[in-house]
Amino acid sequence: MAGKSCFRGAAGPPHVERNLDGWTTGYTNERIRFTPDSGESIQSSCDYATAGCANVTASVVQLSTPRPGASHYVELGFTSGAGSIAAGHDSGEVHLRFNKSNWSNFDETNDYSFDATKTAFTSWDRMTVFRGGVLVWGTEP
């Protein structure tokens, strides 16, 4: 997750989905893995999306078996209203935020999907991509 601070009350990287296939394709789902560092419930919100926040879905899932750097993930998805992505094009930006119910700070330095060096849009294999529930890109913890 890219960010200017590792300790803040809300986390979540800006996102762009790029279609490198030779054909038009639907959107995929992506998972951002993290540890909340406390027992607070986690909420998610879309702040901005080129396709419209009404076409963005986000769910917070607690893993039944925590993994290194990941006891939870936020799954970013899209409704059919988002349409499709033409070959060689991208989704435009999505700004998804997740926070603890009490807005206390996250320590992202111990999160699987966080990398403080990622300050611009780039591929990052720790943000996994799924199509139809099947991992199609990235490395799970």
UniProtKB/TrEMBL annotation:
GO biological-process terms attached to the record: carbohydrate metabolic process
One GO MF term: cellulase activity
From which domain of life does this come?
Answer: Bacteria
Which SUPFAM superfamilies did the record assign? Carbohydrate-binding domain
Q: What keywords were assigned to this record?
A: Glycosidase, Hydrolase
Assigned EC number: 3.2.1.4
Main EC class the enzyme belongs to: hydrolase
Q: Which residues belong to any copy of the CBM3 domain?
A: 1-141
- Which Pfam families does its entry note? CBM_3 (PF00942)
Q: Does the keyword Hydrolase apply?
A: yes
> Is the Hydrolase keyword given for this protein?
yes
Name this polypeptide is given: Endoglucanase A
Source organism: Stigmatella aurantiaca (strain DW4/3-1)
Recite the lineage of the species: Bacteria, Pseudomonadati, Myxococcota, Myxococcia, Myxococcales
